[in-house]
Design goal:
The complex is a heterodimer of chains A (455) and B (271). Chain A is mainly alpha-helical and 455 residues long. Chain A contains 29 helices and two strands. Chain B is mainly α and 271 residues long. Classes of the chains: A mainly alpha (455), B mainly alpha (271). Chain B: InterPro entries: ZNF511 (IPR039258), Znf_C2H2_type (IPR013087).
């Protein structure tokens, strides 16, 4: 904890450093440049403290316009670098502190041009990344000031920390929720090629940032998605998923896959064709995630799998025959609620075939029977009992499949055995009308007066 | 530059709270339901499915299981737990290396030979060929051959040269052509004066009013005296040649430059 005295010393030092900078800028004699660099360096050191950097004081003393002046065209690289570094750390502060960088933004953007030294460009990109990370309105300003194109170009070299920083900043810039930047980005010449190249060959740190760029491209822009699914991207993502052990990388890679599958039926229909190697590989990769100890990986892998299971009968059979089955059964029985819900989607999707016309889906008896025999019904009835409306709906829907699908009243017996009737009766006075209706219909139809059981 | 400029990343201070809060999904997500059309449209002919063999009278309104693609936006609560770490990285501080870390790096680097930049008047010392290439690219390729100002892109350099050193450019401006290009690449807009371009940058591209593309280099004492005399004569921006018809081309440029500067200096306001 900083004691007050230390605090006020720090503030005094900062105010004084800003004054020094002001004087150095005004000075026009010999050695002016070195004076400026020294003053900037002093301020930068104060702002680079890992605990309680005096950002507020710096801003209040008028640092920002001075720093912006230090970014003027033709300034020495050292000066540009120190000024951009100061701005970076100011922008890493509280929201209003980040916003204070507004006057300097166009200059920061100008210095990420291809003729700037790499260190200068990287530092400016870093500062811009911090600004973009603050909020949507700042992203909008940066984009309207032309930040997207030069930042995208910084991804083109093969390696280096500059690529990493630029990738991170770019992911902050396009994260929306407005999809316009994402759609613009994919159209820039060379971007798709750079993305593929990095995901194929670059180290995990760079690949992670690029993967996040893909996450936002695929989540926000249908145009980007349809471009990307026609490249090697899916293949490269699956390979990373299989080979990497870094959670930082696996999360955006998995999510990108999920977005590309959910966003465009082309993926499931044309790329992940059941006989193809890539399809086997992706299921293997998803199984790896389901086995992981990380909740996020399990949950999002189940989500991806549920979307594949929503595909053709061939897809469902493929999953049914894979290593995923025992995992799904186990997760449905034992895992936490959020994972259980996603797994429920997989299981249910595996049990019904796409409907013809506007009727209800038809059942795949083999699959349904298999799951029921493995005791899955209980997991679904648990969902019916949960407070989550969506989960309860899933539970009731699955119960309907069981009641409809199992011959000779077996379905009814099973449901009763697992306390399903009780679970459904809880909805009698539930405020949600849909659920009330669904539960009542099931009870009326399958457990009506002629069921042969005492009330 | 030496390793003074290598930094490490750090996430924001501990009192930072991510702007996204995690909300539990209590409300239902209807996307996968909406595809289903209720069975009141249902008729007997659609029941010819080989697999299903329970053909009882249907109740309407039961929302049967329907397999459908589920898609989420990037901000959806579904992704919240996966986003937690990433949110912390939304802003990153650039920290100095500790003395120890610097020493380690110095030990690694001592083996490198030095490269001296051969361009006349430069003499910069670089530690490796890669650094030299970087330096050359930054310092010796996008510089103005007239006034030596350096610009970060070829495009900005080109704009500068036209606007500051090209009398043909000024002539066209004087005749009312829209010659001042917007500085944002891809915009394509052209304006008739430096001032109106400045306005366009503010209006269309959210530039602050303090941004000034053409900042005059430090003038000599003689020029500073001249400028302070001239300021008293001119209230508005003008490209007129005041020295009379005997003026040389260079003088024309200088007058124009001074005119630009004095006008622009009236434009800038500090934020």
């Amino acid at each position: 904890m900083m004691i007050e005295e230390e605090q006020s010393i720090l503030e005094a030092q900062t105010a004084s450093a800003v004054e020094e900078l002001k004087a150095a800028i005004a000075f026009q004699g010999k050695g002016a440049v070195q004076k400026k660099v020294n003053a900037l360096r002093e301020l930068r050191r104060l702002l680079s403290r890992s605990e309680f950097p005096p950002i507020e004081t710096a801003i209040a003393s008028g640092a920002i316009p001075l720093l912006a002046q230090c970014l003027s065209f033709g300034s020495q690289d050292e000066q540009l670098l120190e000024a951009a570094w100061c701005l970076t750390n100011i922008a890493a502060g509280k929201p209003e502190e980040t916003r204070s960088l507004l006057p300097a933004l166009p200059l920061l953007i100008a210095h990420i041009g291809e003729k700037s030294s790499m260190l200068v460009a990287e530092q400016c990109a870093w500062a811009l990344g911090n600004v973009a990370g603050e909020g949507e309105d700042l992203r909008h300003i940066l984009i309207s000031q032309g930040a997207l194109l030069p930042l995208a170009k910084m991804m083109f070299p093969n390696k280096g920390s500059t690529v990493r920083t630029a990738g991170w900043a770019l992911s902050n810039l396009i994260k929306g929720p407005n999809p316009k930047a994402a759609t613009e980005l994919i159209k820039i010449d060379g971007v798709v090629e750079a993305i593929l190249r990095h995901l194929k060959k670059s180290d995990e740190e760079i690949a992670t940032e690029i993967a996040w760029v893909v996450v936002y491209l695929s989540a926000l822009s249908p145009v980007a998605t349809s471009v990307l699914v026609k490249t090697d991207l899916l293949q490269l993502l699956v390979e990373r998923l299989v080979t990497s052990d870094s959670l930082q990388l696996l999360i955006p890679v998995l999510r990108s896959l999920g977005n590309l599958i959910a966003g465009d039926t082309y993926t499931t229909n044309a790329v992940l064709v059941p006989a193809h190697e890539i399809t086997d590989n992706i299921i293997r990769a998803l199984v790896k995630c389901l086995k992981s100890e990380h909740r996020v990986l399990k949950k999002e892998a189940a989500w991806v799998l549920s979307n594949i299971a929503a595909g053709s009968i061939g897809h469902k059979q493929l999953i049914y025959k894979s290593e995923a089955m025992p995992l799904l059964i186990q997760l449905l029985a034992t895992s936490t609620f959020d994972i259980k819900k996603e797994v429920a989607y997989v299981v249910g999707n595996l049990c019904v075939a796409p409907a013809e016309g506007s009727g209800r889906s038809s059942l795949i008896f083999d699959h349904l029977g298999s799951f029921v025999r493995s005791g899955c019904l209980r997991g679904f009835i648990d969902l019916v009992r949960s407070a989550d409306i969506e989960a309860a709906r899933l539970g009731l829907q699955f119960m309907e499949l069981v009641l409809r699908g199992l011959p000779n009243g077996e379905g009814q017996k099973l449901v009763e055995k697992e306390d399903g009737i009780d679970a459904m009766e809880r909805f009698q006075f539930h405020e949600n009308e849909d659920l009330r209706n669904m539960a009542n219909q099931l009870v009326d139809k399958y457990f009506g007066a002629d069921y042969g059981l005492d009330e | 530059m030496d390793i003074t400029y290598l930094k490490k990343r750090a996430v924001r201070r501990p009192d930072f709270h991510p702007t996204r809060k995690i909300r539990p999904t209590i409300l239902m997500r209807r996307k996968h339901i909406e595809r289903f059309s209720p069975s009141k449209d249902f008729n007997a002919t659609t029941m010819t499915m080989m697999i299903d063999n329970h053909m009882q009278t249907q109740q309407s309104d039961f929302q049967y299981w329907f397999p459908a693609l589920r898609r989420f936006g990037p901000d959806d609560p579904f992704f919240a737990s996966g986003n937690i770490e990433r949110e912390l990285l939304a802003k990153q501080v650039a920290l100095d290396l500790t003395e120890e870390e610097k020493q380690q790096l110095r030990n690694l680097d001592d083996a490198d030979s030095e490269v001296v930049c051969p361009i006349v008047g430069c003499g910069a010392k670089l530690r490796s060929l890669v650094e030299f290439e970087d330096h050359y690219n930054a310092r010796h390729t996008a510089s103005c051959s007239v006034c030596s100002r350096v610009y970060p892109t070829s495009r900005l350099l080109g704009i500068h040269v036209s606007e500051a050193h090209d009398s043909f450019f000024q002539a066209k401006v004087a005749r009312g052509y829209a010659m001042y290009e917007c500085l944002v690449e891809g915009c394509g807009m052209k304006l008739k004066s430096y001032k109106s371009r400045h306005q366009h940058l503010m209006d269309k591209h959210n530039f602050p009013s303090s941004f000034d593309f053409f900042k005059k280099a430090q003038p000599s004492k003689k020029d500073r005296l001249k400028k302070s005399q001239r300021k008293q004569h001119h209230a508005t921006f003008t490209t007129e040649n005041e020295e009379g018809s005997g003026a040389s081309a260079m003088q024309v440029e200088e007058e124009t430059l001074n005119g630009l500067v004095s006008a622009v200096s009236k434009l800038t306001t500090s934020d």
